[in-house]
Predict the structure.
Amino acid sequence: MCGIVGYIGKKQAAPIILDGLSKLEYRGYDSAGMAIYDGEKINITKSVGRLKVLENLTRGGETMPGFCGIGHTRWATHGVPNDTNAHPHFNADETITVVHNGIIENYLQLRQMLADKGYRFVSDTDTEVLAHLLDYYYKGNPLEAVTKVLHRVEGSYALGILFADCPDQIFATRKDSPLIVGQSDEGCFIASDVPAILKYTRKVYYVDNQEVVRLRADHMHFYTVDEEELRKDPVTIEWDTDAAEKAGYEHFMLKEMYEQPKTVTDTLMPRIKDDDIVIEELHMTDEELAALKKIHIVACGSAYHAGVTGKYVIEGLARIPVEVDLASEFRYRDPILEEGSMVVVISQSGETADTLAALRESKARGFKVLGIVNVVGSSIAREADNVMYTWAGPEIAVATTKAYSAQLIALYLLAMKIGKVRGKIDPEAFSAMLGDLKCLPDQIEMLLNNKLKIQKFANRYVGAKDVFFIGRGIDYAISLEGSLKLKEISYIHSEAYAAGELKHGTISLIEEGTLVAAVSTQPELYAKTISNMVEVKARGAFVLAVTCEENKAIEKAADYVIYIPETNPYFANSLAIIPLQLFGYYVAVGKGCDVDKPRNLAKSVTVE
Ligand code: F6R
């Protein structure tokens, strides 16, 4: 959701900025632009459309000389996607320019205040207010102008700012939207995410809320919002640029699906020690874990779907009540958090605005928050009391696959750990479950290798109008994610239903040939789900079943069956989701959709 890149140093800035922006395309955008200081003045080139348009307009950056600049990919919030609303935005005399990710909530008030003082606006964006407000406060000291603006604005922002008066400096700041800065021998960088600058440096600094950075070609200084200088330590990024490249795969999504065996291994194995589960990051004794009375899981999208699975697994294995909430609901519903509760927030990006707000709400009420997070150093990782990282590495495709799989593993480990310390899982069963967990990577690999069969099946459904996913219990949770995977990248309408609920209304939508994917991995529910399959088949549905090898009885009710290998039913989601991810992927590919960057979506949803 909006990407920012800035560079000041020895090299021509524009090509570096274009390259960095291309690494942020996964975040989702509809227009792109750059502002470069050419030695005399700031020039802006911007355009609606893909980054390619900006690359063509500037001949790969060649036509914009200069060693200092900022760039932006915009995901429209205020004002339609067009050239004027694209960033960067100027003040009236084109001496101050800004790129912004986030939402300025009090922009209407500020706009009115500035309009009353004679400022004129050319765009519909909230961002343009910032350029004029900086102009209003700028009296020769750029740092002072920036901090004064920060004291006036409400909302979320990551900003890159250039002042023509101080062409040897870039200013950067953030609140609740991601921003990092980095340094190399060649110059200093700002970016919304590490992959944008990883080619140039591994030395990055995570900017904290309302910190201001002044970057020069060979050094940078950090300040508080009150202009006091700060000392910060850099972090060395350990992972490789390869992790953020396609490595020969047609799409990032396919590559990331293929990384799932490794992701699962990396998230699982460091936490299994001597036939036990050790989650040091919890910083909780066995007694504290055993004393937990309730768990609240809060997340958005696929992370929420992982949470729904987590509810079934934790309640089943640890016998503790679990509530799962969509973060956007939790934050405003005045939730009842009782003594002895723990809040678990789940997020790949660690920047999702609603999840972050739910975390803060919980902390404000005095509850400890555990973050299950993928992006190291992200806002949620930094603000949670404890962090259990999912070691999925950078996920670029907008539709999550490997991070979701890693979230499931983190939740299984948590459930088993709590179940064990509460004496709800006997040692023999515990050992057998550890054995099953360790088999998951190979089993996932095997399912991935079955991709041709699924591709063939998917090709039959590229023209589908509606697809329904049904299941009970954990299978319902799997259906939620399978349905989201299909609809978000193929634009085919799809719904997930608890199998027993379908007949309370939705079954009226089933027509001759409608595809219904029935997920059935829970032995005690096999027969129940078969009944629901028969119901839809009787109304003309074509039934695809995803089930366990032992459940051959399903063939009577299904038109097409995909089997998953044997595992503990609590872990079946990790296997059943693989063919459903592949199905969504191949339908979208068959339709010619932009699989890695579906329309209207952003990878990191930093606004509510
Ligand atoms: C769907 C998807 C989204 C995210 C959701 C939460 O494929 O990726 O639904 O799961 O936006 O994002 P994070 O996990 O970054 O908080």
